[in-house]
Every structure is written in C-alpha cells, then in structure tokens.
Amino acid sequence: MRARVDRRGARRVLPGFGLSLGYTLVYLCLIVLIPLSAAFFKTAQLTWPEFVAVVTAPRVMASYRLTFGASFGAAAINTVFGLLVAWVLVRYRFPGRALVDALVDLPFALPTAVAGIALAGLFSANGWFGSLLVPLGITVAFTPLGVLVALTFIGLPFVVRTVQPVLEDLPRELEEVAATLGASRWESFRRVVFPIVLPALLTGFALAFARAIGEYGSVIFIAGNMPMVSEITPLLIITKLEQYDYTGATAIAVVMLVISFTLLLAINALQAWTRRRQGALT
Amino acid sequence: MGMDEPRAVRWLLIATALAFLTLFLFVPLAFVFYEALKKGVGVYLAAISDPDALDAIRLTLLTAAIAVPLNLVFGVAAAWAIAKFSFPGKNVLTTLIDLPFSVSPVIAGLIYVLIFGLQGWLGPWLREHDIRIIFAVPGIVLATVFVTFPFVARELIPLMQAQGTEQEEAATVLGASGWQTFWRITLPNVTWGLLYGVILCNARAMGEFGAVSVVSGHIRGATNTLPLQAEILYNEYQFSAAFAVASLLALLALVTLVLKYFVGRRAVDRQHSAEHAA
To answer: pTM for the whole thing?
Structure first.
C-alpha cells in the first residue's frame, strides 16, 4: 500500500510520462501489433471449414508432428544436460570454467544460418561426425534426427541460464541438514535440491521449446526438407509464400502464433512461480 | 563433510557436461573456421572481398545501424514509462513488448509481406507511388527491427525498476528539467545495462536470417545480408566461400560473447549496488 502512495507521488514529481508512454505505445503498435494483426485479418477472410481444411491438411499435420516432436525432444535433452551443465558450472571448479561459462551463450550469439551450415557440414556423410555415424547406420543429415540436432543446439543455453542463478542462491545449509539427518548425497539432491530447482527447470524447458517451434535458419540446412518427412512448419509457411499461396501460409502462421502466445503466458506463469520459490528461500 | 560428491562422481559429471558442450558447441564453432580456411588464406581473403560479399557486409552494417538506434530509443522510452510510473495495464504492456521473441522469424517476415507486399494492405498504393519495401532494403530493416524489438527494453526495465525514483525525484525537486534529470541521473545509472542490451540487439540484427529471408528476395548485391549471402553460397556448393562469409558472423558472435561477459559483470555489479542502496 505504501509503495503505491510513493509511486503516485512520483507521477506528480517526475516529468515525461505522457511522452514516454505515448512513444512506447505508438512504436509498439506500428512495429508489432498492427503487423501481427494483419495475419489474423488475412485469415479471417477464410470461412471456418476452409481454415480447418488448410491447417489440418496431411502435409501440414506431418510438419506439426515433426516440429513439435523434435522441439519437445530437443527441449528434453537440454533439460537433462542443461541441469548437468549448470550444476557443474556452479558447484565445481575446474580449469577453463569461466571460458566454458561464457561460451554457453554461443547459440544466442551465433547467427542461426551459421549454425545451420556448420551442423549440416559436420553431419553430412563425409563430415567429421557424419563419417563416424553413417558407418554405424545412423544418418543425421537430411532426416528428422538432423532437425533434433539443430534444435538441441539453439535451445542449449535456456535451461543452463534459468537454473544457474537458482543453484547459486541455494543455501548450502539445506544440504548440510539433509546430510546430518542421514540422507545420502543422491537423496539430498533428489529431495532437497531438485524440488527447489524444478520451477526453473520447467521454465528453461518451456523457453527452449518455444524457441524451437519457431526456429528456421539452423534447421533447414540439415533437415533435407522433404515434405511429409523432414519439413518443419516454418519452412512450409515459406514454401506456401513462394507459391503465392498467401492465405494458406497465413492460416498456418496463425496456428503457430496462437500456440506461441499460449506458451508465452505459460512461461510468464512459470517465471512467477520460480521467483516465488526463490523468494521463499532467501 | 558428507556434503560433497565422491571425486570420481565429480569428475564424471564434469566430463559428461564438457563432452556435451564440446559436441554441440565447440566443434561446430571450430568447424566454421576450419572450413573457411581449409583452402588457404588466399581463397579466404578472396571470398570475403568478393563484390557480392562486400555488398552484403555493407547492407548488414546499414541494417544494424538503423535497427539498433530505433530499438534503443524505444527501449529507453518504454523503460522510463514502465519503471518510473505506475499505471493500469503495465504488466500487459511489458508482456506485449516481449511478444516479438515468441514469434517465429518466418512469421515476422510474413506479416510485413501481408502489409507491404504487392497483394498486401498498402501494396497498390506503394506501387502507384513506385515505393518498394518488400524485396528491398526497407523491408529488411523493418523485419530486423521487429525481431530485435525487445532487447534493450527488457534489459532496462528491471534495472530501472530496481533503482527506483528517489534520485530523479530529488533532482527534479532541486530544479533540474526532465531532460537534465534523464541525461545526468538516469542514463549514467543504467549505462552498463543499456550497453548490454545494445550488444545483444546488434548481434541479432546482424545475424538475423529467417525474417530477413522472407522479405529479401535474395537479390545479389542489393538485398543480401551476410547470413543470406552465406546461404546462397552454400546452396551453390561454394562451401569455402560460404564458410568464409559465415566465419565473419562467427567472429561477430565471439566478440559479442566477450563484450557481453565484461559488460554483463559490470551491469550486475551496478544492479546489486542499486539494490543495496534501495
């Protein structure tokens, strides 16, 4: 209540509220909201049955299965290894730790097309990884497995970066108490550390998943892009655009937008949960 | 103490984590430079001084030089409104600012085609006045502005919220004008956070691929940015040249990470001291 009175006071004292908020709203509308609404208006030209027919066509359904399946798989891999990397970076000291810590953000900084051609080159039949895997019967390039690899790459930092601060703030006393009470190291991890880290872990998973479903640049070089097999939904949108099927492309885009916005709300809720968990501890 | 894992477990965990990062991060990064330089420095230099490559570099720099300042001004305005004042719908506004991050880059390009393309809302009017936006530089800039929209704002909002309004109020009460307060109090307090946002914004602006790909039309020497140039070369099986162009972007990523590391530490220090003072 007091904070609110203070803030009200601030509004009277500080200038520039109208200008800054007005500019923010105009810019937001011009760059983001009006263009996004164009997708919904365009799709509204379709009748409901037409819309459903476009967005549930077999080739489109196959692309959803691949996009969401591979995104889920990649986010799951990153959840396991992201927790491991965060744990190792926070708890252990080893040579090169600071360098490794800084490089974890590489997928955020490296343009997706660069990641795409690098992964495609590495996993092609005569590439560094491909030449080892292909004789074993594992073909990554130009298969759905390639999509999984690319999405794992671009989602890698999310879990590490959401879990890391929670582990850093975790009071060591909790584990000491657990050890004193006779818990093994594994038990104290499973029953003390894990429940505290869980909201951050889920947030990281959701962020990686949300990023993966929209990803394009890192995937198309390694995926092979075969309709029904290794064609992701964002690529299908581009394919339809190139065939001047603007309505079809936009209808699929609207489905993806609705899913992305739902995920955004879920992520906001997860982040609030993470903060509450953390706040309760400190 | 019973608190620490056995030595063997510890080293096994470290080794597994490093193996994962090596396979997925370090090897792909090294591979870019290896492929770029495989045929020698002469081939490398020829590839990056090719006229089309130089045009791509120029367009990439131009795009970032427009998109980053636009989003910087927006980020500062949004943070000032959201962090220093209380108004209804503030949380909704903050969420809306983050919206571009959850939109697929491909869709970011598509929506501008729907507005400015030949069949778009403004298509007929633009054609009458002979203005090209899609398949031209303005479209590339617009798509880049969209995908880099939240970067500065999302760094500044929490930072300025943590710093509160007391210093600004004191300055205003003492007779400073709004701009004086902003330039002498607020801006120096958030310099590092602002720089951090600009670095990330710039990296994405120069490296964006999907959104730019949709609106570009891939016209060599005219609407190709560096990532698009790398794509074209790769699809033509000119691998050395493709990786040479890609290596410039990889270098940009490395510079970004180094700057981010140092600026990020200073920004965090600042925020901590602000929180302690508050």
So the answer is: 0.92
